[in-house]
# Entry
Amino acid sequence: MSSGEVTAVTSAAGATAEVDTSAAGSVRIEHVTHRYGRGGEEFTAVGPVDLSVPAGEFLVLVGASGCGKSTLLRLIAGFERPTQGAVRVSGAEPRPGEAAGVVFQTPRLFPWRTVRGNIDLALRYAGVSRSRWPERRAELLARVGLEGTERRRVWEISGGQQQRVAIARALAAENPLLLLDEPFAALDALTRERLQEDVRRVTRRTGRTAVFVTHSADEAVFLGSRIVVLAKGPGTVALDLPISLPRDDVDAEELRGSREFTELRAQVSHAVKTAAAA
Amino acid sequence: MSSGEVTAVTSAAGATAEVDTSAAGSVRIEHVTHRYGRGGEEFTAVGPVDLSVPAGEFLVLVGASGCGKSTLLRLIAGFERPTQGAVRVSGAEPRPGEAAGVVFQTPRLFPWRTVRGNIDLALRYAGVSRSRWPERRAELLARVGLEGTERRRVWEISGGQQQRVAIARALAAENPLLLLDEPFAALDALTRERLQEDVRRVTRRTGRTAVFVTHSADEAVFLGSRIVVLAKGPGTVALDLPISLPRDDVDAEELRGSREFTELRAQVSHAVKTAAAA
Amino acid sequence: SSDSEAASSGGSKRLRIGYFAFPSGDLIVKNRKLLEKALPDHKISWIKFDSGASVNQAFLGKSLDIAALGSSPFARGVSGSSPIPYKVAWILDVAGENEALVARKSTGVTDVAGLRGRKIATPFASTSHYSLLAALEAAGLKPSDVQLIDLQPQPILAAWQRGDIDAAYVWLPTLDELRATGTQLTSSKEIGAAGKPTLDLAVVSDDLIARDPAAIDAWRTAEAEALRLLKSDPDGSVKAVAAELGISAADAAAQLKQGVFLTPEQVVSADWLGTEGSPGKLLTYVSDTAAFLAEQKQIDAVPSQDAVRRAFYSKGLSDVLR
Amino acid sequence: MRHVALPLGSLLLFLVLWQVLAASHTWSETLVPPPAKVWDAFVDVSTTHDGVRGYNGTTLVEHLGISLRRIAIGAGLGIVAGVVFGLFMGTVGWLRSLFEPWITFLRTLPPLAYFSLLIIWLGIDEEPKVTLLAVAAFPPVAVSTTTAVAAVPKSLVEAARALGASRWDTVRDVVVPSALPETLTGVRLAVGVAYSSLVAAELVNGLPGIGGMVKDAANYNNTPVVLVGIIAIGVSGLVIDGLLLRLERVVVPWRGRT
Amino acid sequence: MRHVALPLGSLLLFLVLWQVLAASHTWSETLVPPPAKVWDAFVDVSTTHDGVRGYNGTTLVEHLGISLRRIAIGAGLGIVAGVVFGLFMGTVGWLRSLFEPWITFLRTLPPLAYFSLLIIWLGIDEEPKVTLLAVAAFPPVAVSTTTAVAAVPKSLVEAARALGASRWDTVRDVVVPSALPETLTGVRLAVGVAYSSLVAAELVNGLPGIGGMVKDAANYNNTPVVLVGIIAIGVSGLVIDGLLLRLERVVVPWRGRT
Ligand SMILES: Nc1ncnc2c1ncn2[C@@H]1O[C@H](COP(=O)(O)OP(=O)(O)OP(=O)(O)O)[C@@H](O)[C@H]1O
Ligand SMILES: Nc1ncnc2c1ncn2[C@@H]1O[C@H](COP(=O)(O)OP(=O)(O)OP(=O)(O)O)[C@@H](O)[C@H]1O
Ligand SMILES: [Mg+2]
Ligand SMILES: [Mg+2]
# Structure
């Protein structure tokens, strides 16, 4: 992954100029507006938004329900084209499946495949050679805590388990950019913390960029190297907050217990509520 | 609603004998086991569980992902029959749509109807006379903060908005029992707190029983008059905790800030993690 | 009027006539509205058919009062344990040069016997089929000595042009197209002369005989007049036929020329229908046809002479000569 | 744009090929008449010409109208019956066990085999024709509706039941709309099948009627008129299918969105 | 249990009614032959009898076998072509614009109207029969596959694309399985339509062949043999449909679970 060479810049709010915007995994959103619908019934969901995410950053998006977080993610993934402005991923127009691995807000599993089949498909698309599938599959299933459900049909597992299959699928490929839309919303605290740890470790180790949507201020502060709060109607950036908590060799419990953490959490909580209430 | 006459008993753990089990909205689960699948591939999801929920109680179910919370709710709603044991709702075998309003873990909206159409359908099934629909519809939409989206198609609203439509639909009927499966999982903090307040107020005012599944310890303590923690594999009761925080005339902020609340939350968090880790 | 009321309520004044769209007295009766003039109180509907099989079915379904019918379908109709409740009351025409057996020139076949082992197409269960079998028999061939193929006229033309078949027994207008590139081996005229004529008969339902014999008489009178017109007014007949068939006058004239039309006198004579009580030679023709069909396993058993005789309606037949 | 240009272009290409084939005289004119002859025939059967009105005293439009009426009644009956049977069979298990074999049996039956029975039972007027068309149109609708109803998402049925829907409510508000897309496909197929059964239905006493006209013309090797009839059948079928497709788009906007 | 008992019961009831009707002599024996006669005919055409082998020198099983072979080849070709066209038309917009009108046109065409064309082009042996069956089987599959493909859940296509699927991957892994249930319904309909076209296909030079046998017997008002043929066609159709239904259950376990 070439992003290893790029220095992870903790960008200051609005300081988008000095960033290397062609590095693999970097995202640049230039004055983007997105409108849904055509003709009489138009609805502006996002914009205008300017945002530059350097490679290696862990960006957390928070904001009220319906403020345009998923839309923004879909724009970055290349599933929607901006009505106005431009989106650049790794310096180019985003194309689905190219630079970004995606966890959608709903699991979107393939019902004609078992849990195992869903993961195998992801492995195939990721270009993993067939001989390494069993090993990789086992590893992915273990990471999301789904050992023993390989042969189940996707409607034979619980909602949280479905979401975890979706996460495992997205982790099968090693894209320079990860887009995660409330991936842990249906998980219990323990599983959630484990996966948070996992995601944080993986992105830091491989220098991958992540754009992560969540409703939990705790999660945002724990994961983000930068938090963007979206205001509603249509979604615009209300707060762009760099987080510089110590990350390496710190125990999660300890980090969460720290004063800085609590304060940041309160700040984010407050910002979200203010932005939503506006 | 006859449940108004029944005294809301804050039951002690295990103290199920003295409860009026035929009162409207009461739930009794007698040594229930539930197995999915047939033949070679059986999987025991729940049991054995004994649980008695007197009318008017706000029971919160917490537990690891996949521990059987949704299955238990489906048993109470009457969508599944227990493999062993018996389930009684208002003293009788549960039948879907009879005593209980349900919010499923996924929104399950009818795609052939608009947001408005989905709610109108619920109003019709609830037996609300057509002349009162506009008023009731507006009220429900306002409660979940969805004013202005009536004419949208269900795929034209965000994930959290879909979940809120599902909640509004379930609130259309005034059943003595409410079953809510992680209803607020996809909502931001502000919307979530508003709806928590709303649900708490409604159930207390009308004396309705609620069984509420959540992964949030905060939510559990804030809402529950009793918290049941399920252990995994198969789901059994690991902890049955009555909550006796002051509820009336208390500000939500204040309540959340109180020491008792923080302690209870920590206790529940710990219990869930212990149960899940086991 | 009270008459039309009776027609609509009782339906007794209704006359449903099935006809074939090839040159015959029927077309003239229809075109000149002879019957409508003779029976002004009747509601007359002309229904076009193109196979004897469906005429038989329509009689079974009581949907017809009078209809044209080939002699072989008629023979089939009156045989069996429950014959169709109809009787022959008129002869429309006798097959002549308008039905013939033709071989493709390129096969080099010049006589019927030369067809051994060849593919011959004909519409099964038709008069052509019967004539073909008769021709083969006369030439000393068993049906198994040739390959018989069941084809309707238009497919015959297509298969002929492709060279899929070597010979075909068929009627106009397809026959004319085949003659252009083929050699005629025999015709229904020759086969008829040899004692196995095929005819187009007209049958009336038992029901009509019981209900409205006067209408039958009027209809027969009209048919007799048409036969006379064919002889006395050839130009007018050609025009009527051309108009009914939607073809050119030249084509109509050519087709008319190839048919054999009896005079009313001949029809009534002992050579053909005969008179009440003493049926003419038609009785033998029909019996022979039935016997032949039975031999070919096309029907179960030969109807008794009596059964065939019972299927003749010649009451008042000779009145048409007046 | 493209939606119109492409088919028109291919039509043009087809006409050119046809003209070339006809001009090459590989086949006799009776078998492959040139386009111009077919056009003449079209004009002939559409107008009063030399005192003859259309074909057999009836113009093309009238032939077509009469046949369309038969299709409307026949296919209409078949479709309604198909939807009703499909709904019942898809929802009630024992009804399906009872009727499915009979329906399967019915839809394998060749119309040409049972048409004589229809004539014997129902006569030679409108009844056998309409019945044959109804019998032809029934199976596609019944089969697709049955399958679609049996495959209604359980989650949505449960959602309706949880809201207090009665069995009948569920059928009306969940089963019917959910099965609608496949039912509509069945209807489109049914109309097509009815069309293609038109000649069989009008084999006996089919004039006036476009199928009867085609068959009658075929008897006289009048290929131009046969082709005019075929084209008239095909084009009117295209129009109806276009309307059904449009209906589908309006009635089932949610397809593919779930 | 019920799955077998109910149809059998209704069959018995039907036989009894038939016997009663036949015995009442309301209809002539040509119209409604008693079951016993049909049974006799069945024995006759199944055995060598009075030196005659079956019907026209071929036993019933052989007639049926020959026709089933035609159906297998014809319907097989039609179904494969239908799936291929359906997939392409459902996925590629301009292909749909180009071909849909032609296919709609094709499926409204009465086989009886274009059969002579088939003979011109393909002769009178197996080719026109197989082609007619293929043409009959093609539309249901093509239409249902096209509609189903166009209605593939966008969410799942996106999920595959997000995982890095190529366009072709998406077709194979999402579009095909997602359209499979409707395609299978189309296949069931196609087999039925092919069956019901059997008599038309075997109108020309159709003996040996069960459709040819039925038509031949009908020409001679040999109703018992017609009924034997119809029953043989229907029963073999039932068996094939049963197999297809079972296939559907095995291949598409997720139907109704979403
Ligand atoms: N149809 C089924 N067949 C087999 N196993 C099933 C089926 N449905 C659910 N299960 C299993 O039963 C267990 C309980 O499922 P349930 O949906 O009740 O979990 P849950 O507690 O609601 O989990 P979550 O928090 O993830 O929603 C899970 O382990 C799941 O895999
Ligand atoms: N297809 C559509 N047509 C019209 N409006 C749409 C469409 N999709 C989304 N919207 C609207 O656009 C806005 C943004 O939607 P989006 O899904 O991005 O919200 P979100 O921030 O992800 O919300 P949530 O937290 O609830 O998932 C919402 O108000 C929604 O109603
Ligand atoms: Mg969202
Ligand atoms: Mg659950």
